[in-house]
Amino acid sequence: VLPVFAAYAGTQVTLLLGNLMASNLPAGSVSALVYASRVMLLPVGILVLPLQTTILPTLSQQVAQKDFRLLGKTMLDTFRMLALVGIPISIGIVFLRLPLVQLLYQRGAFDAAAAALTADLLAWFALGLPAVAVLMLINSVYCAMGDTLALGCVNGFHWATTALLGAILVQVAGASGAAMGISVSTTLACILGLARLKKNIPTFKWKGLVEVAAKASLASGVMFSLLTGVDFLITQGLKLQLTWHWTGAVLQIVLAFLLGGSSFTMAAWLLKIDEIQAWRAKMNFPKPSLRIRA
User: Fold this and answer.
1) Which residues contact residue 78 at a Cβ distance below 8 angstroms, ignoring those fewer than 6 apart?
2) How far, in Å, CA of 85 to CA of 212, rounded?
3) Is the pTM of this model over 0.85?
4) Which of 99, 103, 102, 165 is nearest to 128 (CA)?
5) How close are the terminal C-alpha atoms of the chain, in Å?
6) Which of 204, 81, 75 is nearest to 144 (CA)?
7) DSSP of the chain, one letter per residue?
8) Which distant-in-sequence residues (6+ apart) come within 8 Å of 172 by Cβ?
9) Beta-carbon neighbour count of residue 181 at 10 Å?
């Protein structure tokens, strides 16, 4: 029972530990952590929960058939997709942290100061978003394999490091330290989970995951730099300052989504990420050609 609980409630326990570490901080800190974590978990739920539902029967069948070659390929393809989607989403949330919080929460007693605090915490949570998504799927793989020992070890390590890092970082950085500790501990637990999977399933070639994660991070850096440059041009160059209103937040989010999505896709294509190349081939985009007429 405990390993299954760890698989499906591990993230919630981690967030609860973070809130406990921040319980002695000034009023509003725990509430800001809760609000920020809800925003972070929204894309995780959209990405991972449907994927868990569809991939778990496939993984269970491959484990039952002892088809470890196909199991390793299924795991690699799934983790690569999560990294390719999760990394740019996390960087996008970091950039849009304030308008997102303003749009979702800023009304009534939730004033500009509360929005600013929640937005800062959201940035730290967002940096750990890809690891949260991958770790949830790792737990599903362990469930399919019936490896309760690995489930207990990985999630126990996750909770212990969350408590330890939270206790230390809260003293240094306040509520931001609690969010920072959760993201760091989740990333470390994710690495441990992948290492154990590689040990148990030698056909799992996790170098392919490292490759796509590095390229997606680089493409996301290009996206973030472009968005930051455009924002600086608008606010400093054109001296255009948007006062807070929900329409302004929606406009910022939509424009950032369009510009950021297109710039990330272009950068990922230039970096020759296989999934982007395959998508381009399916869309039958014409190859650029240069014709010189005499």
Assistant:
1) 51, 55, 137
2) 10
3) yes
4) 165
5) 77
6) 75
7) -HHHHHHHHHHHHHHHHHHHHTTTSSTTHHHHHHHHHHHHHHHHHHHHHHHHHHHHHHHHHHHHTT-HHHHHHHHHHHHHHHHHHHHHHHHHHHHTHHHHHHHHH-STT--HHHHHHHHHHHHHHHHTHHHHHHHHHHHHHHHHHT-HHHHHHHHHHHHHHHHHHHHHHHHHHTHHHHHHHHHHHHHHHHHHHHHHHHHH-TT--THHHHHHHHHHHHHHHHHHHHHHHHHHIIIIIS---PPS-HHHHHHHHHHHHHHHHHHHHHHHHHTT-HHHHHHHHHHTPPPP------
8) none
9) 28
| Token output for 258 | 């369009």
Q: Which two tokens stand for residue 8?
A: 């499906």
Q: For residues 18 and 30, give the distance between their C-alpha atoms in angstroms, rounded to a whole number.
A: 9
Query: How far apart (Å, rounded) are the C-alpha atoms in residues 239 and 81?
Result: 40
- Of 11, 94, 63, which is closest to residue 204 (Cα–Cα)? 63
d(CA 29, CA 294): 71
Interval 96-129: pLDDT, tens: 999 999 999 988 778 889 999 999 999 999 999 9
pLDDT of residue 59: 84
Residue type, 267: A
Rg of the chain over all Cα atoms, to the nearest angstrom: 21
Residues of the chain with pLDDT under 70: 1-8, 237-246, 279-294
